[in-house]
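Aim 2 progress. For Alcohol dehydrogenase, the working sequence is reproduced below.
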Amino acid sequence: MSKWMQEWSTETVAPHDLKLAERPVPEAGEHDIIVRTLAVSLNYRDKLVLETGMGLDLAFPFVPASDMSGVVEAVGKSVTRFRPGDRVISTFAPGWLDGLRPGTGRTPAYETLGGAHPGVLSEYVVLPEGWFVAAPKSLDAAEASTLPCAGLTAWFALVEKGHLRAGDRVVVQGTGGVALFGLQIAKATGAEVIVTSSSREKLDRAFALGADHGINRLEEDWVERVYALTGDRGADHILEIAGGAGLGQSLKAVAPDGRISVIGVLEGFEVSGPVGPLLLKSPVVQGISVGHRRALEDLVGAVDRLGLKPVIDMRYKFTEVPEALAHLDRGPFGKVVIEF
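Predicted structure tokens for this construct:
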């Protein structure tokens, strides 16, 4: 194993301050594992952290990104979960193993990789063994790297919290990473899936993945179309990706006693909507901020069992990180991944 590694980091919160530098590989502590990175999957959150800091207390030099897959190169003397040669993926919220989310009403927990903790955009990462899970056997490294955030977010919203059932009507907003995982998970469960998008070409690609219906939200009122498709009942589940005032439209489109999973902040960090549908329909409106390690392990098992294949829009080289980040602004169909 090399004693030196290259990693991307920044010394300040700024859109274009990332630099590639060489640093020594840290030593493994008693409970740490040293993982050689094979792929990193980018999330829109990574851009937000780099460009705004998102109000987080970042330590500089700051290494971005939270989602990676790799192979264990060495382990600390007390490590029991992994051994050299094992393929692993990171967890987004280390320390949240199962059950209720850590934190308090005053201070919700948000200690994640690529935020309060160092990121993974590096040739090697050295972190506690509990911060990883075994990678799926059926996916390559790039595909596996998409699970810790995008895959788990969709799984947590629909399966872990949503108790998705065959026959449910699911509205998926857009065709980004979380949305397409939602489409695939819902179809694997036997649900009926409605995809909304502003692109006819992306809707055609969503049909190829199994979507039952597509709505071009620039050409028609997506809420009215959901009513028409469901006989006025509405959607049992909505993956609310846009946020902002879009929550109001989701409140109109959701079925009585349905569920809205608020995931995205593309339209800002404030959400709004009419109180009438909220009171009269009694939907569950749940905020989803990824999920815990046990649910990620459940997702890994489902991926291998069901043959789910993450959708990767583009694979970039490790030296092409700025280009990969720029791709996020163009609205990828699925995920953007960096391969080492």
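The domain at 162-287 is CATH 3.40.50.720 (Rossmann fold). This observation will guide construct design in the next reporting period.
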